Structures are given as C-alpha cells and as structure tokens.
Amino acid sequence: MTVIKVCLGSSCYVRGNDKTLNFLENYIQKNNKNISIELVGCRCTNLCEGGPNIFINEKKYSHPSEDEIISVLEAL
Ligand code: FES
After folding, report:
1. Ligand 1 centre and the CA of 9: distance in Å?
2. Pick among 3.50.50.60, 2.30.130.10, 3.90.226.10, 3.40.30.10: CATH of 2-75
C-alpha cells in the first residue's frame, strides 16, 4: 500500500496543494488505484518554506509537478 499525504496546512494549500489534491484524486480514480493508494491530508509539518509539500511513503516532495508525481507512482 502506497500512502500519499498531502499537506493541507494553509501555506501549502494556497500555494498549490489544492490543485495537487484534485489531481491525485482524479489520477487514483481514473487508474483504479484506490486499492493500492491511500490518499490522506495532513497538517502543517513546519516545512512550509519549501512547500507545497506532499509525502509519498514518508518521502517528501516539494513543489512536485504532475509529471513528477506520475513517474514516482509508476515506479513503485
Ligand atoms: S503548510 Fe505545509 S508544511 Fe506548513
């Protein structure tokens, strides 16, 4: 099971994680990944400066592009 945490703290959210969250929800649904990927939100982790941040299996990705997210997920 892959766990993706999307920081929903205000700094990350307004700087792009609102769109990243929508992108991930659509990606998971379109690719039938809802059994293998758990998508959750998390609170601010005090890493705002480099954000917006997401975590894939606890590894941090800052400012991830949609292409980067896809390539990480497809490599798992
Ligand atoms: S709001 Fe995301 S790390 Fe602070």
Report:
1. 5
2. 3.40.30.10
Q: Rounded to 5 degrees, what are φ and ψ at 35?
A: -85, -30
Nearest atom, ligand 1, residue 52 CA: 2
pLDDT digits (tens, 9 = 90+) for 38-56: 999 999 999 999 999 999 9
Please tell me the pTM assigned to this model.
0.95
Show contacts of 32-38: CB within 8 Å, 24+ apart: 33/73, 36/1, 36/2, 37/1, 37/2, 37/3, 37/4, 37/73, 38/1, 38/2, 38/3, 38/4
Ligand 1: which of 12, 14, 40 to mutate, judged by most atoms within 8 Å of the beta carbon?
Answer: 12
